[in-house]
Design a protein that fits this description.
This protein is of the alpha+beta class. The protein contains twelve helices and 15 strands. Strand 3 and strand 4 form a beta hairpin.
Length: about 425
């Protein structure tokens, strides 16, 4: 796999780790180092008598280090990979020491499947029934709350304090409807200072109403739609069960990584696109801040060769990765020819699922242009689509484009899109 500095730095858990790792990316920092087609390894002298032993599985991008850091990857792993990306020729030793071979062997050994514990179906049914009743009670309160909003009108809505929205969101958490809690918080986060905020507010209010009504009257709906509505409410799907289902094998381009932190819980969102299947995917990973992250990391800007299994939905998007996977350099991929194809796809998706999230697209030959103090993306047929309001990387995009069209990876819906990355001189650049 061809590693670049950009790929390595994207793996760092925070800016401090990037800085510390960069400081260790010199040959003089390492007592020994080596590499082969499977791994990198090195010994970095620290403050103690023994150097830290650092090893990297470069096929699946996994790390191990003997240092006491709780960050994953630690600065030593980042430094070793940066050094490899910059000075690959200095890694002349290709025979791994025993401590590396043992680690790799353990990773490749087939795990003995544990016998599933017998399920008490009666107790399980009682727990489900109790939760469904909690959700139903919460929905009743939520509907009364929304009716009050409509009855009283929107004039006083911008004056509502944070507690007004947070109290209802917490009530939904108590009702074990975390999905509805997030929707209520999003309603309160409407930008009441923007022109036309009423449209955005009512759109979100309608989204909540559609989800609630769909869930409460889901008996006659198709199974994938029922499962999607349950997920929107906050019910989870057994991922081990999902991994046993057939998936889609493809080369999956990792277009972008987004990180969100809430009360020390880190959520990583990875946007993927299948080279051959032309399907988009969202892979989520969760972990507690400064604790061990998932054993196999997903690297933005490269590709995964593996199988993805989608969560049930009329318009599948969220997926989990079946392991093991291998990482390769990002291949060339053809995308949609212009905005007409994007909007036609969006229309078809809305026909199947009127309440849906943004998703990634790859569109060919887009040029960033400015018109009436607004930034747009112009396709080959001179059609314009506005950039998402507040897009932060416009100057980086302009520098990359230089006024010329680029093939871009985009994220969005409903005529609001933001570039995630673009192909420039044959390589994919993260934005």
């Amino acid at each position: 796999m061809l590693l670049t500095e950009e790929h390595v730095l994207a793996l760092a858990p925070d800016d401090a780790s990037r800085k510390a790792g960069s400081a260790l990316a010199g040959p003089g920092k390492w007592v020994s180092k080596g590499a082969n087609s499977d791994a990198l390894w090195g010994e970095c002298q620290g403050s103690g008598s023994k150097p830290y032993q650092t090893q990297v599985d470069i096929v699946n991008v996994a790390f191990k280090c003997s240092c006491p850091s709780r960050k994953f990857p630690c600065k030593h792993g980042i430094g070793l990979m940066l050094l490899y990306a910059r000075q690959k020729d200095t890694f002349t030793d290709n025979t791994p020491p025993a401590w590396v071979s043992e680690w790799l062997s353990k990773r490749t050994e087939k795990k003995i499947e544990k016998t599933d514990k017998p399920v008490d179906e009666t107790a399980q049914a009682k727990r489900l029934q109790a939760r469904q009743q909690k959700v139903a009670d919460g929905i009743t309160e939520l509907m009364l709350w929304m009716k009050d909003i409509v009855r009283n009108g929107l004039l006083q809505i911008p004056e509502k304090g944070d507690a007004y929205w947070e109290n209802m969101a917490r009530r939904m958490v108590d009702a074990q409807a975390a999905g509805l809690a997030g929707m209520v918080r999003a309603l309160g986060e409407t930008n009441f200072y923007s022109e036309g905020w009423q449209n955005a507010f009512l759109d979100q209010l309608l989204r909540i109403y559609l989800v609630v009504q769909g869930y409460t009257q889901s008996a006659g709906l198709d199974e994938p739609l029922q499962q999607e509505l349950r997920a929107l409410i906050g019910f989870t799907q057994n991922q081990e069960f999902l991994k046993q289902q057939p998936g889609i094998k493809d080369t999956w381009l990792v277009l972008s990584k987004q990180i969100n932190e809430e009360e020390n819980l880190i959520t990583e969102r990875y946007w993927l696109y299948g080279q051959h299947s032309k399907q988009s995917a969202l892979v989520l990973q969760f972990y507690v801040k400064n604790q061990t992250r998932p054993e196999v990391l997903i690297t933005p800007g490269i590709a995964l060769q593996g199988e993805l299994v989608y969560f049930p939905s009329p318009t599948p998007l969220r997926a989990i990765i079946k392991y093991p996977v291998s990482n390769i350099s990002l291949p060339a991929v053809s995308g949609m020819e212009g905005w007409t194809q994007v909007t036609d796809t969006e229309t078809s998706l809305y026909e199947q699922m009127p309440v849906r999230s943004e998703r990634p697209y790859i569109v060919q030959q887009l040029t960033p242009v400015q018109h009436n103090l607004q930034w747009w993306l112009k396709d080959q047929e001179e059609r314009l689509m506005p950039l998402k309001a507040g897009y932060a990387n416009i100057w980086k995009l302009l520098a990359l484009s230089g006024g010329q069209p680029l093939n871009m990876a985009l994220l969005g819906k409903e005529q609001q899109y933001e570039p995630l990355g673009a192909w420039h001189n044959g390589s994919y650049k993260l934005l």
